[in-house]
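Long-time lurker, first post.

We've been arguing in lab meeting about whether flavin-adenine dinucleotide would sit comfortably in this protein at all. Half the group thinks yes, half thinks no, and nobody has a model to point at. So I'm putting the question to the forum: if I give you the sequence and the SMILES, can you give me back a predicted structure of the complex? Inputs are below. Any interpretation is welcome too.
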Amino acid sequence: ARLYTEQDPVVILSSDSLKQTVLNSSSAWLLQFYSSWCGHCIQYSPTWKALAGDVKDWAQAIQIGVVDCAHEKNFDICKEFGIHFYPTFRYFKAHDTTNDYGKTYRGADRELQTVRQLMVNFLQNHTKHDWPVGCPPLDPARSFRGKLGMSEGILSLMGKKTEFYTAVIFEDEDSYIGREVILDLMPYEGLAVKRALSSDKLLMEKLGISSVPSAYLFYPNSTHTVMNVQKRLRFFFSSFLKLLPGVHRKQSTSSLQHPQPGNNGQGTQVEWKEFEKSKVYMADLESGLHYLMRVELATHKTLEGEELKTFKDFVTVVAKLFPGHQSVVKLLETLLEWLVSLPLEKIPYDAILDLVNNKMRISGLYLSEQVQWVGCQGSSVALRGYPCSLWTLFHVLTVQAANRPDALANTGFEDDPLAVLQTMRRYIGTFFGCQECGKHFEEMAQESLNQVKSVDDAILWLWRKHNQVNARLTGSMSQDPMFPKTQWPTPDLCPTCHEEQEGLHVWNEQMVLAFLRQHYGASNISPKYSSNSQPGPPAPDKPKAISKPNSNLHLNQNLKPSPDSAPKHQKRSDTNGAGQKHTGIQIEARPGMTILGLGFSRVDMSLCVFLYAFSCVFLMFMFFFFRFRSKRWKPRNYRPYV
Ligand SMILES: Cc1cc2nc3c(=O)[nH]c(=O)nc-3n(C[C@H](O)[C@H](O)[C@H](O)COP(=O)(O)OP(=O)(O)OC[C@H]3O[C@@H](n4cnc5c(N)ncnc54)[C@H](O)[C@@H]3O)c2cc1C
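Top reply:
Settle the argument with this. Predicted structure of the protein with flavin-adenine dinucleotide, as tokens:
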């Protein structure tokens, strides 16, 4: 199942329901945008469920919801809300009509109590104009103004018959108990709960309160006394009050709770695909690339500075090393050419998406939009998938860098054994949705990446670090019970990788290296289940010619890369282009293209060419016509005496 189900006390939101639920709502909202593949989201889900259960009586004031950004249905909405990392926590004020995308909580402390207290603070940030319907005042009791302020208000209850109980929680100013008890009792009728501060000495003295927190109760029959609870804790105060005779839960509360939209169409049944453990599946790599390009990166509205550089380097490495189907490789190469030929320092991601989606309809470019996890499929839709495919992709790339030493020539990465790992490090640190994973990975890189001196070292470094992560996550909640985290490759996959020395298990790293080169080599990648398999077979493991940028491909031929903006490797590839093989990309008659944001149809383009040719012919004709006329005119009008 997905991380959250209808049985959980959270409201599951999706693209269909998110906006109409949280914008202009009568209550405030605290949403968690998560990704079901993100280990930290998985680990955090029990806390979030516990929090939602703990504050479910606060629903008239503030509600807890979740949005799964890994669900295809929610890709666009998560992009629109600018969700870059998971989990992202967003608050939405009640009655907010500004259509904004909420306020992000960036604190590192996500403990239940901290988040609950933040919810209280957030509620108090409302003004009296946008105060959530049904939420009682949370400020210290001062509703009756008089010379003595709040004391008089509460003291005026003494000896007075009322229709309901009034409970007053005495506490220090920074304590949350009073406000939490007020919110806990919100759906109950027959009593009012107020908060008073220990700084109100007069009131404390009059009611005989000597320590805080404590509670004082005014009965409807005008009697009053200190509330006698076993422990002065929120739960004890709240339970005591809920059990008072005559105090009932209001009938209508449940109707204010949001209906769970029938699993949101988030089907949990996925057909199981048979696969071999000893193979790598192209479908996983392509699904991973699809998710990376169209979902993970697409949450960034624009790419500039370091982000743009990281993206360009990532595309360079993948375009040159990805042993995929020609259609995918061509798409990556086209993207790379386009990126390096653009003089822009800032690129709107939508423009990149247009290319990834081949809006220009260049023949033979295609990356499937279908997600097909095979070797990376999980026993439930919430497990494995994307992070598994990302590991697989980078293992494949480290092996490709070793198997095809010339592949990165003229890219600025030639002879750099760290090309793939540094690119991965920067990608994971900059774009990977699981920020905590990125931090751990960065720590590992800082610790030992400088020890990598060859492409073989790079293969082994990534293998070691992946095993380190496996060891850390063994038994964690993100572990799929069907695919337990182990030190990999297991003896059944590679018996010679394992040895024993003095009764201790040791790796035979030479064997591990040989195994990794075979396992992640192009010939071990199965095309089974790949939606891209039709356009052409996967590229073989042989060295590939370096592509010479095809000038026809430049979206804007007038724009030459400025010396500063064109990356070093591109400048080199331009000058060394002679003798290099053509990428083989053929441009079909294009039905349309976009130049500087203006769309041109095929008819527009044909008209331009036609008019251009016609005006040339016309000008030439005019030139010869007048020249001929002037020659004839001169002798006829020659007057020697003038
Ligand atoms: C860079 C990175 C850092 C991450 N950090 C964290 C983290 O800090 N906390 C967290 O909860 N999750 C983290 N994740 C996610 C986590 O590592 C898993 O990817 C996720 O839990 C899915 O696990 P899985 O069972 O599919 O196997 P994965 O660990 O994703 O492995 C995928 C496949 O790679 C192969 N494999 C396994 N081990 C190795 C190895 N040592 N060398 C080569 N191939 C191997 C196996 O065939 C396996 O099926 C991270 C992911 C990435 C990409």
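For your lab meeting: The pocket of flavin-adenine dinucleotide is lined by residues 39-40, 376, 384, 387-388, 390-392, 395, 428, 434, 436-437, 440-441, 463, 466-467, 469-470, 473, 478, 480, 483, 488 (CB under 6 Å). Confidence is low (pLDDT under 50) at residues 253-268, 534-592. Whichever side wins, do check it experimentally.
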